[in-house]
């Protein structure tokens, strides 16, 4: 199996941290500041089962605020158009207008998509995740919903298996 996987989501949800975790190395720059990534960052993961090209897209931002935002949006959309699978990353228990915009771009791309609910290590009451997952599942026909912690690595291996299965 092989294919291209775009990692998409609003700034700060943990896209770069997830890519670094999957690759087992610090390739993408992670930061608490938004817009750290101006260009898409590519990473190849080679496994016995196949090879996956990951594309860490710059955040999809609100429309038209600046030339830079417009440029970032174009770059992100171009990456989406030519991909086999999208990992749509959100933060556990947090849904914002920017997530809405990013999901709209995913829907426009018309590509199969797995929702990654990141930063679950921060959620003390795990039961609170269930209604969040349910609501997210109603927003889009995701192939799967995956609660993970990119920072700690929990459920990331299972996510990789799901990605391979989808390619
Ligand atoms: P990006 O803008 O989507 O690429 O987000 P980054 O990967 O740069 O991460 C943004 C911030 O969230 C950084 O401070 C990360 O350390 C933090 N972060 C990322 N993943 C996790 C996680 O699983 N748990 C927690 N608690 N923090 C995380
Ligand atoms: Mg990033």
UniProtKB/TrEMBL annotation:
It is found in: Cytoplasm; Cell membrane. Keywords: Cell membrane, Cytoplasm, GTP-binding, Membrane, Nucleotide-binding, Ribosome biogenesis, RNA-binding, rRNA-binding. Signal peptide: none annotated. It is a peripheral membrane protein. Belongs to the TRAFAC class TrmE-Era-EngA-EngB-Septin-like GTPase superfamily. Era GTPase family. Residues 148-150 are annotated as: G5. Residues 9-16 are annotated as: G1. This is GTPase Era. An essential GTPase that binds both GDP and GTP, with rapid nucleotide exchange. Plays a role in 16S rRNA processing and 30S ribosomal subunit biogenesis and possibly also in cell cycle regulation and energy metabolism.
């Amino acid at each position: 199996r092989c294919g291209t996987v775009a990692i998409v989501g609003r700034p700060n949800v943990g896209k770069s941290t997830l890519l670094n975790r999957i690759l087992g190395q610090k390739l993408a720059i992670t930061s608490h500041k938004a817009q750290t990534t101006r260009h898409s960052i590519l990473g190849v993961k080679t496994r016995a089962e196949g090879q996956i090209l990951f594309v860490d897209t710059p955040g999809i931002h609100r429309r038209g605020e600046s030339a830079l935002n417009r440029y970032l949006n174009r770059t992100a959309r171009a990456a989406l158009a030519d991909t086999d699978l999208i990992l749509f990353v959100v933060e556990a228990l947090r849904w914002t207008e920017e997530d809405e915009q990013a999901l709209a771009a995913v829907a426009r791309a018309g590509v199969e998509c797995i929702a990654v609910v990141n930063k679950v290590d921060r959620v003390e009451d795990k039961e609170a995740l269930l209604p969040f997952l349910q609501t997210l599942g109603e927003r889009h026909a995701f192939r799967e919903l995956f609660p993970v912690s990119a920072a700690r690595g929990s459920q990331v291996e299972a996510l990789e298996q799901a990605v391979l299965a989808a390619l």
